[in-house]
Amino acid sequence: MRSTAGEPTGRAAAIRTVAAGGERAPYDRAMTRPTAGGGIPPELARLRSSIDNIDAALVHLLAERFKATQQVGELKAAHGLPPADPGREERQIARLRVLAHDAGLDPLFAEKFLNFIIAEVIRHHEAIAGAANPPA
Amino acid sequence: MRSTAGEPTGRAAAIRTVAAGGERAPYDRAMTRPTAGGGIPPELARLRSSIDNIDAALVHLLAERFKATQQVGELKAAHGLPPADPGREERQIARLRVLAHDAGLDPLFAEKFLNFIIAEVIRHHEAIAGAANPPA
């Protein structure tokens, strides 16, 4: 088990939702094991365990993606390039629609997903550009 | 190179955005290579190439996730369980917030992301439940 002593306050903030609700610690490996007595079908527990693993992978990939776009934002600010790049976004969406189709994912959902991510990235880039060029 | 002859029409539909705009084929591996003469800094091209690789991984993981939730939806419909499960969702969000914090991703964004995915999943589950129990 992992000790909670000396954890940064950010981590405490991340789990505040749970503490407020009086629930058990959220990052409990046992949570993703099939629930023996939880009253749900074993097949459902097995699928949920896979979903939890996929979600952990998604979160870690998203963390890497934002590390890359953070660098992109700093580069764009340094070169005076605009935060948004409609041509690039159009090509990204078109490519992901094809990848999604080939992987059996709804291409429209892939497009919505990328737009959701890009909106967050542009918000970050605007913050970076604003910090680099504060209003006079 | 991959031949486009005999591709299913769904693939053609997936790339219609590009065809309509007169752009080049969207799934072009060269697109993710650093652009020598594109007028963008080489470091930006390198970062974009990594972002494109991460996005392809995200799309494939999402495809797997929806395959799992599709099965969950069918199981729930078969057992008469409701499409949404607020307790499960609360635990998923709390866990992902902690994982996000540890990975350097904004926990609030991780929560928004999961809500975005869950909204789509519930939409699928409701469609499955509706198909299993058509209105009389």
TrEMBL record, chains A, B:
Could you tell me which species this protein originates from?
Nostocoides veronense
Answer yes or no on keyword Isomerase.
Answer: yes
State if Isomerase is listed as a keyword. yes
Q: Which domain of life is it from?
A: Bacteria
Specify the protein name.
Answer: Chorismate mutase domain-containing protein
> Which key words tag this protein in UniProt?
Isomerase
Q: Which Pfam families match?
A: CM_2 (PF01817)
Which SMART domains does this one have?
CM_2
The Chorismate mutase domain extends over 38-129
